[in-house]
Write a structure and sequence with these properties.
Layout: H1 2-18, H2 20-87, H3 89-176
């Protein structure tokens, strides 16, 4: 990040000496990079929020289902016990078999529901991962495009800077007959 900022500042300072057209292109590129970062941050936040919402929803549904199933099993057990007392000793064996069968069915339904919920969760995770992978790929593509544009701007700036240096030297020769020395460079 610091390297990109340093690069952009260098480009901007060279661009300021070269002309307004290149500076505008750099500002536009900088603006596009900021917009892209903001959009990427928003997408990441939305994904986090959606994942959190899905997980919380699934937890709530599982908890509610479990509570309902427990309540139903409790009610069923109490009802069956009352009937067994009324029918007496002869019917106790039959009622136990029925109770066990019903519990098995309820457990089977619960297991089936858990399996379906797990399958949905795994499918959602896969889809979320696919979206993440796609976003990463797009980010890499945009990053590569930006690097190519920056390299192109650098090349253009070097060419313009070289032409300007040659023009200044020719002008010094014309005006003074000798090239002027840069005072910041010190004595020759």
């Amino acid at each position: 990040m610091a390297g990109i900022i340093t690069l952009m500042l260098t480009i901007i300072s060279v661009g300021a000496a070269v002309g307004g057209l290149t500076y505008a292109a750099i500002r536009k590129l900088s603006g596009e990079m900021k917009e892209f970062r903001a959009e990427l941050g928003g997408v990441q936040e939305r994904l986090r929020g959606e994942m959190k919402g899905l997980e919380e929803g699934l937890r709530g549904e599982m908890k509610g289902l479990d509570e309902r199933l427990r309540g139903e099993m409790k009610e069923l057990g109490e009802g069956l016990r009352g009937e067994m007392k009324e029918l007496g000793e002869g019917l106790r064996g039959e009622m136990k078999g029925l109770e066990e069968r019903l519990r098995g069915e309820i457990c089977g339904v619960r297991d089936e529901l858990r399996g379906e919920i797990y399958g949905v969760r795994e499918e959602l995770r896969g889809e979320i991962q696919a979206v993440r992978d796609e976003l990463r790929s797009e980010v890499r593509g945009v990053r590569d495009d930006l690097r190519a544009e920056i390299a192109e701007v650098r090349t253009e700036l070097r060419g313009v800077e070289g032409r300007q240096t040659g023009r200044v030297a020719r002008l010094e020769d014309k005006v003074f007959g000798v090239p002027l020395q840069d005072p910041a460079a010190g004595p020759a």
